[in-house]
Amino acid sequence: MSRGRRRTVKALIVLGSVLAFLSVFAIWIERQALNTDDWVNTSSRLLQNEKIRTALANYLVDQLYENVDVEEEVESHLPKAIKELAGPIASGARQFAGTGAEKVLETSAMQEAWEDANRVAHEQLLAVLENKKEAVSTANGNVELNVASLITKLADQIGIGKNIAEQLPEDAGHITILHSDELQTAQNIAIAIKGLALILSLLTLLVFGLAIYLAREGRWVTVLFCGVGLIAAGFAVIVARHIAGGIVVDQLVKTESVKPAGEAAWSIGTSLMTSIATTVIVVGVLFAVAGWLASPTKPARSTRRVIAPALERYPAWVYTGLAIVVGIYFISAPSQGLRSFLTALVLTGMAAFGIHELRRQVGEEFPDAQFNDAFGGTRDKVVAAVKGANIGERAAKLRLPEVRRPPAPGAGEESPTAEVPTTEAPTETLRPNGEDDRLARLERLGTLREKGILTDEEFAAEKARILAGK
Questions:
Q1: Which of 44-58, 106-120, 365-379, 446-460 has the lowest mean pLDDT?
Q2: CB–CB of 73/156 below 8 Å?
Q3: Torsion sign (Cα): 361, 367, 371, 376
Q4: What is the rounded distance in angstroms from the CA atom of residue 222 to the CA atom of residue 209?
Q5: What distance in Å separates the CA atoms of residue 321 and residue 298, rounded to the nearest whole number?
Q6: CB atoms inside a 10 Å sphere around CB 132
Q7: Is residue 196 part of a domain?
Q8: Inter-CA distances, 98 with 21, 111, 155, 167, 459, Å
Q9: 429: which strand partners?
Q10: What was the pLDDT predicted at 442?
Q11: Residue 27 pLDDT > 80, yes or no?
Q12: What is this structure's pTM?
């Protein structure tokens, strides 16, 4: 590639990584704030947290005692002779209510009431954001979470629940989610969020796709770095969530005793963000694996050799497998509307293009690939490795013992019957079968090298030793 094209590809990878980072936040806000089922699921998990239950229980007790004359209610239930004990009993009942409210909130009835209150409030919020006039709350146009029913249930638990509902003011147990003067701004933000989640998700993949297309010769490197960019974006979101949590809780929660509940609420409320970031990381890993698989490294080439027969002979089965995986995703994954569908469609298209390019590559590298090529070669290597576990010992066995030639009669001063020395340094050696034995040993060395038992250096050393007559 030219220098300008290389710079363009690098810039597109960086841009795609930034867009992936931003898209996680946009998707999280869309799903958490604008999806009722996701919000109800999160609110249920909030109530299951001990710190949040404690804070909510204290809030319910405070609302009960602020809006109902508990002492008077207790007095009305006491016999005339002990009515003067109503005050101490009411104070004790408050202590009991504070410690027992958490247990009450653990019951299925209270949790169902909590879920119902959150579902109604969120549906009302969505209706307001979609500008449905009939959905505007009667409480001055505010969107509110009504937990008055929880206060009534709590009063029943401490024995003063009779007629409590009639005594509670209209605003008791109403937590304002959105003020009427904020509705227009919230509507505009909701519209922007829906558009951003879709645009950023698709734009991320399109930018990466353009970078891969422009790379050409170094396409595998670009695919690899696109994966690295997605992985980095996912981890950056997780780090940003951790940092932002401390800032948000400090700014919104001023009461120190409530801060543990605020931190727990942030952790649970943003857990969906972590889930989305994890999905981005997984997609990045798949990109990185695809880039590695197309690389010229020896392990990648060996892997391509193994899968070459399937890619070349059974492409229909390969693409059918891809279709099955995509089908399972659409069936098992929760539907998130048009954005989820289009994102999955683009990823499927990129995967199909990657398989096409991989088939072309393995077709050029292994035009006559057979299933037995890779596995048969592996089998032969294993067998040869077992047989030649000790290469040094096998090579030593190739060296046959040397035999001293007896001196010729009349040579020097020795007689023909002179004793043959067996330990002195030889003047000349003989080996059985002569040249035939040497050739056999050389052929055996060649076989060991072909099977990978001997390296080229070991082969050369042994060959030189045999040719030297050693």
A1: 365-379
A2: no
A3: negative
A4: 10
A5: 27
A6: 11
A7: no
A8: 43, 18, 12, 21, 85
A9: 404
A10: 81
A11: yes
A12: 0.65
Question: Is it the case that residue 317 has pLDDT exceeding 70?
Answer: yes
Per-position b or e across 16-47, b if 16+ CB within 10 A of its CB: bbebbbbbbbbbbbbbbbbbeebbbebbebbb
Q: What is the C-alpha radius of gyration for the chain, rounded to an integer number of angstroms?
A: 40
Do 165 and 208 lie in one domain? The reply is: no
Length of the chain as a residue count: 470
Q: Quote the number of domains for the chain.
A: 3
Beta-ladder partners of 146 = 174
The one-letter code for the residue type at 384 is: A
Same domain, 30 and 70: yes
Q: Which of 441, 395, 398, 403 is nearest to 422 (CA)?
A: 403
**Band of residue 288 on the pLDDT scale cut at 50, 70, 90:** very high
Residue in 128, 143, 152 with CA at minimum distance from that of residue 175? 143
For 168-185, the pLDDT digits (tens) are 655 565 666 666 556 667
The span from the CA of 374 to the CA of 368, in Å, is 12
Please calculate the CA angle 418-422-426 and round it to the nearest 5 degrees: 95
Residue 138's pLDDT is: 40
Bridge partner residues of 175 (DSSP): 145
Which residue range is the domain that position 290 belongs to? Answer: 201-372
DSSP letters along 103-119, please?
HHHTSHHHHHHHHHHHH
DSSP classification of residue 400? P
> Which residue would you say has higher pLDDT here, 380 or 111?
111
pLDDT tens column, 37-92:
888 888 888 878 888 877 877 777 777 666 666 556 555 555 555 555 455 655 55
Helix runs in 70-218, H state only: 70-77, 86-105, 108-129, 148-157, 164-167, 183-215
Whether 150 and 243 map to the same domain: the answer is: no
Q: Which of 168, 71, 150 is nearest to 106 (CA)?
A: 150
Q: Is residue 217 part of a domain?
A: yes
In a domain, 325, yes or no: yes
Measured CA to CA, the distance from residue 432 to residue 184 in angstroms comes to 104
Tell me if 361 sits within 8 A of 335, measured CB to CB: no
